[in-house]
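Posting for a labmate who doesn't have an account.
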Amino acid sequence: MDGTEITQQMAALGVAARAAAADLAFATPEAKTLALTAAAEAVWAQRRDILAANAKDLAYGRDKGLSEAMMDRLMLNEGRIQSIVDGLRAIAGQNDPVGAVIAEWDMPSGLHIRRVRTPLGVIGVIYESRPNVTADAAALCLKSGNAVILRGGSESYHSSSALHGCMVEGLRAAGLPEAAIQMVPTRDRAAVTEMLRMVGAIDVIVPRGGKGLVGLVQAEARVPVFAHLEGICHVYADAAADLDKARRVVLNAKTRRTGICGAAECLLIDQGFYDAHGAVLIEDLVKAGVEVRTEGVLLEVPGTVPAQPEDFGREFLDAIIAAKIVDGVDGAIAHIQRYGSQHTESILTENPVAAQRFFDRVDSAIVMHNASTQFADGGEFGMGAEIGIATGKLHARGPVGAEQLTSFKYLVEGDGAIRP
């Protein structure tokens, strides 16, 4: 397919999405719920076909030399398909955000004013590797009354196509326009370039992937973008941390799934914690097969390797973590301010004053206390799923669920009111 054909194809997707969005904005909550429920049933009924498609993607990924962590992001099994189904049903069961009254008030002039939620319109989602994003993004856009154009990664092409087909089955069952959920039918990167230029067809772009993808989108997009930078997530073990809690949380934050954006990439150990407990957190990580890149006294732990300056502030997305000793909670905050990506940070402490100072002064989208950063996920926040973790400060921040995919308008009522 040459450049002209891709341009024409993307333009056609945009026209169809814009028309579908106009219909979807007025779809009843019942129709959207039916579409999502039917899609969930289709995913489960077709799980063997989805797994067969995923096997093709895994073979493609191996041929490309993807890392073990990236292969884990790509891989589907029956348990993960069940999670996709559960996510679709959870989103179906949520309250419909469209038309919800955010605030209302009366003015002395006689005006009654309501601020209500409305769809954004057409959302373009560009993502890498994880095929489950196909279902998550489609479901959240549908729930919030938005049409969506999906452009999955080349590695997940077959899996994403299979899941997209299930979502379209759901639309069909509910009598909703099938163009409400479209998938770019090519691996060609030129399609991404076209999406970024589709002003007038796409209202916002949501990039979900690594630094390279997000950087490209932010640099080249003419369409507004929900910022989703790297997940350089920190865990800070305070002097007053409970040892057992700290050991559990640090291991989970790094090792549960190393290739997701909520995986811990840097461990900060307070000097007081080290004085009391030594390097036990580092030892646990090494025993778990994690490469710990560190400095100073922590290098005495067998199996650690010297950290390079660039290792602090790096998203590894692998069984690798940077670690260092800091001086108190303010030392941890200063490190995070310098090296963090404003994604997710966690403090481990039994000192409520230290926890509150961390909460007040760490300016990240998600700040946690005595909890694993792996909880940085919309499903774990009760959103059913999320389209990404927005690290910017405009419109949406943190997990972007259905409610965050809406804007608002003012409905103003009077009784012959005139302005003097």
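Reply:
Got it, the structure tokens are right above this. The chain has 14 helices and 16 strands.
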